[in-house]
Amino acid sequence: MKKNQIRLLGIIVLFLMVGCEKSEPLAFNSKSAITFDYGRGAPVNSTTFSFLGKTNPVGVIKVPMYINGFPTKEDRPFEVEVITDSITTASEGDYVIKPGVIHAERVQDTLFIEVPKTAKLDNEVLHLYLRVKANSDFDKGIIERQFYKVSWSNKAIMPTWGVYFRTFISSAGSTRAYRIFVETTGLTNFAAADFRIYGQAGAEVLGKKFGDYIRAWNAANPQNVLTHDDGTQMGKPIVPRY
Asked: Exposed, middle or buried by CB within 10 Å (0-12, 13-18, 19+), for 48?
């Protein structure tokens, strides 16, 4: 009986020793997630491009991208796809989506889309509806930021008057304000991807070019100052930020 008790006690001790051994933790291996960069504040999920005032035969549309994850020491490719639904009106020959790359040590980057200047853009606005794709480097990010629309034409297309317009150009937008912006800066949009290129100081320079034009016109035409021709501030003076 005593031998059985000793044997049983030995089994229990051995069981406890095995149970207390530390197991190796499971490795956590999760990819970063890729999304379009809608910016901060009010989300902007589209961009526009106009050949108005441009002589180049090919335009470049810049689409901001963002990853939810850590930067790496290597460049990582990402992919997008075109959704062929009622929103997309462009054909394959109307655009070229360049290979997407999140460069080393970055969590924000830019997708470039080349669009040729053609005669049909004189009367049409073409649209492309994009969605991010998963690949070996990235999962798709949150569904709310997986989609993006780009539009282009030879005509003036007023883009969403987003936070960068409101901060550096004018608090309110209109077709007339937009035309002056295009004429004075040479740009057709001023969104997150553009601000990334110019930075704070460059954005202020653009704002001053816009403001200088407004002030010069108003000084020469005090009875006909520049006003908004449409939008929420229609009929009111265009007030530059700089």
From this structure: buried
